[in-house]
Design goal:
Helix content of chain B: 10-25%
Order of helices and strands of chain A: HEEHH
Mean pLDDT of chain B: 84
Mean pLDDT of chain A: 96
Structural class of chain A: mainly alpha
Low-confidence stretches of chain A: none
Strand content of chain B: 25-35%
Largest sheet of chain A: 2 strands, antiparallel
Helix content of chain A: 40-55%
Largest interface: A-B, 27 and 22 residues
Shape of chain B: elongated
Order of helices and strands of chain B: EEEEEEHHEEEEEEEEEEEE
Number of strands of chain A: 2
Distance between the termini of chain B: 52 Å
Number of helices of chain A: 3
Oligomer: heterodimer
Structural class of chain B: alpha+beta
Chain lengths: 63, 257
């Protein structure tokens, strides 16, 4: 995982995801999909290179 | 000589619906309504069970066993909280999730019983969950094979998929029919006209669109999934284009024999 993963997780955990049906989901360590998707968004926003990862790969970075 | 030394009860034109009275040599009329015979259910000593309304009575020991189970879950959660029960970091969230889910289910059961509902009778079996993929952020169009799970102890299973990927994914199902097969192989199924391959390529495999915050129940579209009995199972994924955002999860929920 990239060295920025810790920051990415911290940022993701402060986000809210809004879906097309209007449902808003606050990202927590239990919303696995939203957490992974937001971490990925962080990597994309900062042009950080990464390869395929999953929720399990983020567990060491979750407090 | 007759086996029962008593006269049958008569209606105007013949014998009436009746039954023998337990322990006595006499009959009494049977009654019913709505085209159904009324019955009473008796325990092994012959004492009838009391009904409240139309519900079965809740046996204290059944409720007590649920409460005991709930107390065990609460105690385990408390032990994790105060550090007396050590759980590996990478398993902690799953463990707490599972305990919280169990606690909720037990509390729901107790609340339901308190509201007058009967215990749901489950003669055999319990549920299990396998996570083939858990929020997998795919970044290329290569095929990804999941862990292989033993499903030989499942009488039925349901496959749930959730994808937030910005590319369509093709999903493949691989099984081993028996323990002697060395590895899982892709399933082909009859689509009504020909055998169709679930081996994922750009135009084969089960297409999975972006489902946002919903789960697809694959069994509802691919009815043949309801009939699979196999030894082991794995899932294979392949994105049809390079995904740049999102992730995909594939869970199996199965009922054990």
């Amino acid at each position: 995982m990239p060295v920025e993963t810790k920051q990415a997780v911290e940022w993701a955990l402060s986000q809210t995801v809004v879906y097309s049906n209007g449902e808003e989901i606050e990202v927590t360590k239990h919303t696995k999909t939203e957490l992974v998707d937001m971490v990925r968004e962080y990597f994309n926003n900062y042009n950080i290179e990464y390869s395929t990862f999953s929720y399990d790969d983020l567990i060491p970075y979750i407090d | 000589m007759a086996d029962i030394n008593a006269r049958l009860l008569q209606a105007i034109d013949g014998s009436a619906p009746q039954h023998k009275v337990r322990g006595q040599n006499r009959f009494e009329f049977s009654e019913g309504s709505d085209r159904t015979l009324h019955v009473k259910i008796a325990g092994k000593n012959g004492n009838p069970l009391d009904f409240e309304g139309d519900k079965f009575p809740v046996e204290d020991k059944q409720l007590q066993s649920v409460i005991n189970e709930l107390n065990k879950v609460k105690s385990e959660l408390e032990s994790i909280k105060n550090g007396t029960l050590k759980v590996k970091n990478d398993q902690l969230i799953d463990k707490i999730d599972a305990l919280l889910a169990k606690q909720q289910s037990l509390e729901d059961k107790i609340n339901s019983v308190m509201q007058g509902n009967a215990f749901r009778t489950q003669l055999t079996g319990s549920y299990t969950e396998y996570k083939f993929f858990d929020a997998l952020a795919l970044t290329d169009t290569g095929r990804v094979l999941s862990q292989v799970y033993d499903i030989s102890n499942l009488s039925k299973f349901y496959l749930y998929v959730r994808s937030t990927l910005d590319a369509e994914v093709r999903l493949g199902i691989r099984v081993t029919a028996n323990k002697n097969e060395p590895s899982t192989n892709a399933v082909m199924f009859w689509n009504g006209q020909q055998y169709e391959h679930t081996f994922p390529t750009n135009n084969t495999g089960l297409p999975i669109p972006n489902t946002q915050n919903a789960w697809i129940l694959l069994n509802s579209r691919y009815k043949w999934l309801n009939d699979i009995i196999a030894d082991r199972m794995a899932i294979q994924l392949m994105a049809t284009q390079v995904p740049t955002t999102g992730s995909i999860s594939v869970y199996l929920v199965g009922r054990k024999y």
